[in-house]
Fold this sequence. Notes:
Layout: E1 2-10, H1 14-24, E2 28-35, E3 42-49, E4 52-59, H2 65-73, E5 76-84, H3 87-96, E6 101-108, E7 113-118, E8 128-133
Parallel strand pairs: 1-4, 5-8
Antiparallel strand pairs: 1-5, 2-3, 3-4, 6-7, 7-8
Amino acid sequence: MMKLDHTGIAVRRIDEAIEFYTNVLGGKLTERYTSEKPGVETHIAVIQLENQVIELLEPTSKTSPVERFIRQKGKGVHHLAYRVDDLHVAIEEFEARGLTFLKDTYRINPYGRRLIYINPVHTQGTIIELCDYITPE
């Protein structure tokens, strides 16, 4: 089973974005952290809006994938993340159907979310994350 887990949004100024999503839209900031891992290099803020989750992404370096995304496509929706029951099983099932993944994107975030991105050649250019949770939410 798959369901939308969150929407990632690339921003230039995370504090301004947090202000908008909390004060204007009434969301609640539930997590905020920075990942300086190579290939991530991003400030991340998680906003809960009713039954929706928004992940705000601000690049922390010129080599951040989010920085590259903003340069190429501009600010805005960066990715859609779909939660699966078991990430490793889902990867095997998708690979059996001929899809490939950006293997270097596999990681576990500080909150126990395992994730990986599908190669965008299969998604008409949309960045799609698959994820599951290995620790209780």
